[in-house]
Amino acid sequence: MAQGKRAGARQKRGFNPALLLLALGVTASVVAWGYLVFAAVDFGGAARDGDGAAWGFLALASLGAVACLFLGLILLSRIARALGLTQPPPPRERVPRPRRDPDPPPGGHRGSH
To answer: I need a surface site. Which of 23, 31, 32, 102 has the fewest CB within 10 A?
Structure first.
């Protein structure tokens, strides 16, 4: 480090196995999503041709595709957080709630005025 420089030493970024697992999870969920979308299209065609059981498989494939895409997006957001691209939200400030009177006045709320 040079004289008078205020910047600290850079940290080395090494291999992070957690990021590799997250990336593999995103890849697997996106591949599964693509397969389920293809299957849903195929089941939809079979259902239109009169196969009654295909409607159930179409529904299951569609729900599975939605779940896989959702999982992939969640894992992708965790990768962005681990790389420092995003930050967690600031902690919420707790505001104490006023206590309720255990014995309300006779006549309800209007009777107290």
So the answer is: 102
Residue 31 is assigned to a structural domain of this protein: no
Looking from the CA of 51 toward its CB, the CA atoms found within 13 Å total: 13
Answer whether residue 82 is part of any domain. yes
Q: What is the pTM of this model?
A: 0.65
Please tell me the number of Cα atoms within 13 Å of 13 on its side-chain side.
4
Tell me the percentage of the chain whose pLDDT exceeds 70. 79
> pLDDT (tens digit, 9 = 90+) per residue, 23-59?
999 999 999 999 999 999 999 999 999 888 999 999 9
Supply the range of the domain harboring residue 63.
Answer: 36-86
- The structural domain count of the chain equals 1
Residue 23 lies in a domain: no
Residue found under tokens 């309800």: 108
The answer to whether 79 and 19 have CB atoms below 8 angstroms apart is yes
